[in-house]
Design goal:
By secondary structure, the protein is mainly alpha-helical. It has two helices and two strands; from the N terminus they run αββα. A two-stranded antiparallel ribbon has the order 1-2.
Length: 137
């Protein structure tokens, strides 16, 4: 029993471990309440600094994400504009090509019509000549 009392007295006279936060432990001297109070104040200040650093880190991450999102939006807008310009240029070229094809088709249709009319005239002339030779015989 004397050993147990000696250990208890020794622990009590040296220092106590006080839990101010589950994550941190503060060593408090039994004999100096001002020192204990100062240590608690320092630990509290360190905790506030840690929380502020964490908040600043989160803020920095949010700013980075926001910045990257803004860059992505900007690039996307640029691509949309580029795509729209290319689409308009393609539509214009397609329209021009379509008109050229339409004009070629009209020209070829007129040529075909002319050849067909000449064919019909020559056919009529040949049929008349054939009828004339049949009537003579």
């Amino acid at each position: 029993m004397s050993t147990t009392n000696a250990k208890t007295k020794k622990r009590g006279s040296e220092s106590l471990l006080v839990k101010s936060n589950p994550k941190t432990r503060v060593l408090v001297d039994d004999f100096d309440p001002d020192l204990s109070s100062d240590l608690k104040g320092i630990m509290s200040a360190l905790q506030l600094i840690k929380e502020k650093a964490h908040k600043d880190g989160q803020k920095k991450n949010e700013e980075t994400i926001s910045s990257v999102a803004a860059e992505l939006r900007s690039k996307l807008d640029e691509l949309k504009l580029k795509f729209e310009k290319e689409r308009q240029a393609f539509a214009k070229a397609l329209s021009k090509s379509s008109k050229e094809c339409e004009n070629c088709l009209k020209d070829e249709t007129a040529k075909f019509q002319q050849v067909y009319e000449n064919f019909c005239k020559e056919k009529d002339v040949h049929l008349q000549a054939l009828k004339g030779t049949q009537n003579i015989n």
